[in-house]
Amino acid sequence: MNTTLNTIFARHQHRDGALLPILHDIQHELGYVPDEAVPLIARALNLSRAEVHGVITYYHHFRRTPPDRHVVHVCCAEACQANGSEALANHAAARLQQGDIAMEPVYCLGLCSIGPAIQIDETTLHARVTPEKFDALIAALGEQS
Ligand code: FES
C-alpha cells in the first residue's frame, strides 16, 4: 500500500487542494480509502488526521472498507414494483445474505415496461427477472469470478 500511496502523493502533493484528488486516486487504486492511509495522507499534506478523516467521512463517495466484489441493483421503482420487484428484492436479499455480493435498491434502470429489472456491477442490465432467472444470473456470476 505504501508504494501506491507514495506514487499518488508524488502525483498531486504540489497542487493546491490536493486532498480530494489524492483520495479519489487511492480509492481508484485500492477500491477504498483504508484507515491506515489517513496518517500518511495527513503527513504528506501537512494536515491533521482529523481534517483528512473529516473529508473522507463527509463525502459518501469514499469507501472506508473494501468493496464487495459484485453489486446487484434491484429496481424498486413503481413500474417494476407493479411487475413483482418487491418479491424479487426479498428473494435477492435472502439469496445474497452470505458471500461477497451486495444488493442495493435502485430507482429506475430504464427498462420500465419489461421489469422487474436488475443491473449487475454497473454494466449489465437484465429485464423480466424472475427469482429463478435471478438465481441463474448469480450462479453465472460466481462461475466468472
Ligand atoms: S421502474 Fe424499474 S426500470 Fe424503470
From TrEMBL:
- Entry's Gene3D superfamilies? Glutaredoxin, NADH-quinone oxidoreductase subunit E
Instruction: Name the Pfam families on file.
Output: 2Fe-2S_thioredx
Residues engaged in binding [2Fe-2S] cluster:
C75, C80, C108, C112
Q: Is Transferase there in the keyword field?
A: no
InterPro entries to which the protein is assigned, alphabetical? NADP_DH_HndA-like, NuoE-like, NuoE_N, Thioredoxin-like_sf
The residues forming a coiled coil are none
Q: What is this protein called?
A: NADH-quinone oxidoreductase subunit 2
What is the originating organism of this protein?
Sideroxyarcus emersonii
